[in-house]
Amino acid sequence: MDRRISTFELVTVSVETYAKIWLKGNLVYHTQQAARQKMEMALAEIDRNIVIMDVSQLLFIDSTGLALLIHFFKKAVCQNKQIALVVSTNKTVERILAIAKFDKLFPIVEREEDLARLLASPTKEIASQEMLLKIWQNHCIQN
Question: Kind of pairing, strands 82-86 and 50-61?
């Protein structure tokens, strides 16, 4: 019998220009089914084109969790949504995402405010995922 206790929580909040999904706990093999269901339900309920996924409260993420994020990313892009990740001070998860080269797929920022400023647009145009990544990369080069 497996005695490891793995928990996963997901909280969704929508603001004017984007939706935010907080992932909390462990995004690992033992939580993958519950996590997949919660993430798909959250994506179906989100009515914004931009989704900020805050992974700063993840305790750990394994390869199964990374695959689940990719699955979520693909579903979101098929629905014309753009994804960005917030890592805050969670250096462990940030390193795992860097090793997995997630910065090639998503803008990864330390604070939500960093991305929110970049998304502010007087015309309220929504950039493609590729454009969102380019905007963030240009911002990093300038600062």
Answer: parallel
